[in-house]
What we know:
- By secondary structure, this protein is α/β, with parallel strands linked by helices.
- The protein has two domains: 24-39 and 289-395, Aspartate Aminotransferase, domain 1 (Alpha-Beta Complex), CATH 3.90.1150; 41-286, Type I PLP-dependent aspartate aminotransferase-like (Major domain) (Aspartate Aminotransferase, domain 2, 3-Layer(aba) Sandwich).
- Helix content is 39%, strand content 13%.
- The protein is built from eleven helices and 14 strands.
- The chain has a seven-stranded mixed sheet, sandwiched between helices. The chain has a three-stranded antiparallel sheet with strand order 11-14-13, covered by helices on one side. It has a two-stranded parallel ribbon with strand order 1-12.
- The mean pLDDT is 95.
Amino acid sequence: MTFDFSTAVKPNLPAPAAAPWNGYPPYNFVGGHNDPDSLPIEKLTRACTEVLQREGKTLSTYSLDSGPQGYLPLREFLVDKLYNYAGIECTADQILLNSGSLQAIDLINEALLGPSDTVIIEASNYGGVITRLNRLNVNIVTVTVDEHGMQTDHLATTLATLADNGTRPAYIYTIPTVHNPTGTIMSHERREQLISLAVEYNVPVFEDECYADLIWDGQRPPALYALDSSNRVIHVGSFSKTIAPALRVGYTVADWSLISQLLALKTDAGSGALEQMLLAEYCRDHFDKHLATLNKNLQAKLEVLCNAIDREFGTTAEYTVPPGGIFLWVKLPDAVNTTQLAAAAEAEGVSINPGNEWSLQSDAAQHLRLCFANPDIATIETGIKKLAQICHREFGVPEFTGNTPNKQ
C-alpha cells in the first residue's frame, strides 16, 4: 500500500497541480512570457563567459563578494538605470535583489501584513497579487482604474471611509506604469495625488513596476518612488520582462529600515548568483539598445494581434491599444463567460487568461487577457482565428468569424 500525501498535507492549501506538465499549448496567450526572437543569446553567452573567467571563484561563497543584498555590480547598474529611466535616486544599499519580483511581493507581504489587515489595490490587477492576498486572509479594498490609471478621486473616498471606520490600510498596491492587465499608464497628476493621499493618511505605497520599461515611445513617467520625499514608497522591478523571465531576477528599492527587515526574512541563502553576474555584465553595455529592439518587436506583435482580433471578432471585441507592455485586455459581450471560453479553448490548444483571474470588477467575466509577446506572428493570427471560432460555437459571439464564408 502506497502512502497518500493528500491525507497528510495541511488544509486550506492551493489546489494541487492537475497533472504533470506536458508542454505549452500550440496557441499560448497566457503568462508573462517574452519574445524569444529578442533574446540576445550570443551576447548573453559572451557576457557569461567573460564574467565567469574574471570572477568565477567568488561562486565558492554564498554571497559572492557582495553580501546578502545581491551582486554589487548589478545593484550599481540599477542605481544608474533607475535614475536614468524612472527618476529614482537611491544607493546600492537601498536595493535588494530577489528571485523574481514574486519573491519581493512575498517578502513585503510577510513584513507588512497580518490576518485581517486591509490592503487597497486596483480593481483589475495582477492575478498573483490577488491570490496571495486571499491566501493571507487580508481584507481587499479595490479602487477603479480608467485610461489614466488608478482613479485617485475614488482612492480619496476609500481612504476617508476607512479612516472613519478606524482602519489604516497596511499599504496601497499599484501598478502605475503599464498596468497589468489593462495596459494603462497612470498620469503624472494622479501620481502626485496618490503620494499626497498616502502622506495624509500615513499609508505605505507598494509600487510594482515590472513592465515600466516596455513603452513604445520610450517616455516613461517618473516612478512614484521618485516623487515621494517621505520614504513611504516601496519600488519593485524585474528583469523578467526586459531580458528573460527564466533568469528569475527581480529587485526591491526601499528605505533601509525596510530593506534590513526584508533581509531578515529572506532566508534562502541568496538568490541565484550566476544570473545576477550575467545580467550585470550584459546590461552594463547593452541594456539600452536591447530594450529599444525589444519594444519595437513587441509593438509589431501587438499590431498583428489587434488586426487579428478586428478581423475575427469585429466590433464584438472591445479594447484600448496599450502604449506598452505585453498584454491586451479585451472585453467581449455579456453573453460570453470567459472562464467557460478559456476551458473550451484550452481543450483545443488555445490558452487565454479569463478576466475573473485578473479582476474583481463586476464585468470581469466578460474580459480576457492575451499575452502577445511569446507567440510568433503566424501563431497569433491562427490562434485568434481559432479562438473566434470556439467563441462563436460556444456563445454565438461573434455572429460570424473571419473564417466564415458568409460573413457580412
